[in-house]
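User: Show me a protein chain along with its predicted structure.
Assistant: Here is one chain, sequence first, then structure tokens.
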Amino acid sequence: MEKYKVMLVKLGDKDLLNRKSLVGFIFEPKFDGIRVLIYKEGNDIELVNRKGRDIIFKYPELLEIPRNINCKDCVLDAVLTILNKEGKPNHSSLQYREQLNHPLAINSKSRTVPATLFVFDILEKDDQTLVNKSLGERKRILGEIITNSPFISLASHTTNGKELWKQIQERELSGMIAKELSSIYEQGKRSWSWLNIQNINTTNTLIVGSTKNEEEKHFDSLILASYVPEKGEIIYVGTLKQGFNKKIKKKLKKLKTDKPALSEEERNKIKEEVTWIKPELIVEVKYQEMTKDKQLKEPSFIRLKFDKKPGDCLLLS
């Protein structure tokens, strides 16, 4: 079975919903969670994240999903998430489960806070690659093989983007994805055929340093940075002062370095004394807006991201 790379989205805008040029698009709610490719071979399952790591051992409750996938072999594109009682993604529960490694703890949480897979695309079925077929055809094939259960479900979609947007705002969800029905699956690429329309501004950033409160003898903020693809460099995008916990602090201690990831020009933008950190930890933040000088206004912590690579922290605006 071929190994695939996920297709990525471009950043869209809610004003797109008023454009006639979006005829021929469908709209899906954006599920906050871990992007995975599901590899099914008979009754065997792999859940491969963006780092290429099989994480099925962390979610043993999902070992039963082959009975809900009605074909011999396939590769599916999905988001793994944990829902709260209101059916909304629970960031803290997912982050907690991602950090578990002991089998007893994993098995216990698999029963009390189970994960759900929302499947939205199919790349291969019974040894036939489907990436060059249109999204509309792939959706048709996908709909024929998935039987919904508490652990796996077809992601819903609609042609009425404005109505879905109203529902997303009412439920305070993070956004939706607009997808062109005629588009092929562009592996490993950010495509204008898939547009991320955000209800809440979020982005993935690198932690490259921390500052210390001398009076309280602990660091009180994190220095955030992002890659600028066209320049091929890392730039300072803001300082995170709230929301992170002791576990992050412990991880940062192991990543201290004397070699800052930022250039001298970028370092001069930071007024505080900084303890530099190797750019390996990724944190998702929400923010009010991005300023003209590429600074995130009032960023706040959402969660650590374990399924991303440092190179995924792109400044897209």
